[in-house]
Amino acid sequence: MMSFKSFQLELDTRHDKYERLVKLSRDITIESKRTIFLLHRFTSAPNGEEILNESEVKLDAVRRKIKQVAQELIGEDMYQFHRAISPGLQEYVEAVSFQYFIKTRSLISVEEINKQLIFTTEDREETSNTTSNSHDKQPHTWSLKVTPVDYLLGVADLTGELMRLCIGSVGNGDIDTPFELSQFLRQIYDGFTFIGNTGPYEVSKKLYTLKQSLAKVENACYTLKVRGSEIPKHMLADVFSTKTELIDQEEGLS
């Protein structure tokens, strides 16, 4: 009976930790989505720098949530709880890479993302504890590494946001961004095709959605190139939205 009591306690503790990680992952997903919605206003905002600064504040709040995840996983095997935290990490990768693309017009690497996920007691949340325990000079460090699969899935979701950014920029009269996005998405698609069926099942599932986003952006570039001079700028977004609906209908029939 004593052995089974200890087994029960261990299983209950693990289950409670799993549930806490699921709730933290849900919070990370929600805040990351809000950051993405904010960044979509970049093309239409009069002052884009304010949008970027506000998005950085929101991402800092997301990182504080990820720090709590890292603290929960101290002394644990991360892969035992990976299913609980994976959706939140994917959404965070999507938000960070979207902000990075708007700033630099390039793709952030998984190494750069992981550098931002190293936490110490010098952070704002821990300042009170460090002053009260000033005799203990050893800084505590927590880190959480984004796995390659989570990174790939986050980048695949990024392509959908870039497609929306393309249509939104055209509606604001920006003609150059769609061609830039088309080249960028083509490079990402080429990279995913190299993985093919050898990668995880989730990556191959995302490949179809990625191809859809690329087709919509290329269709927008084609319309701009062929009929851009005929259509007034304020009507371009309506033309693209109807064309993308037709593409969706054709793909649904096929």
UniProtKB/TrEMBL annotation:
Give the Pfam families listed for this entry. Answer: Translin
Assembly, per entry? Ring-shaped heterooctamer of six TSN and two TSNAX subunits. Interacts with GOLGA3, TSNAXIP1, SUN1 and AKAP9. Interacts with the homodimeric form of C1D following gamma-radiation. Interacts with TSN and C1D in a mutually exclusive manner.
Indicate the principal place this protein occupies in or around the cell: cytoplasm
Location of the Glycyl lysine isopeptide (Lys-Gly) (interchain with G-Cter in SUMO2) covalent cross-link? K243
Localization, per the record, is: Cytoplasm, Perinuclear region; Golgi apparatus; Nucleus
Annotated binding of Mg(2+), by residue: E94, E161
- Task performed by this protein: Acts in combination with TSN as an endonuclease involved in the activation of the RNA-induced silencing complex (RISC). Possible role in spermatogenesis.
What molecular functions are annotated in GO for this chain? metal ion binding; sequence-specific DNA binding
Q: Gene3D superfamilies under this entry?
A: Translin, domain 1, Translin, domain 2
Q: What is this protein called?
A: Translin-associated protein X
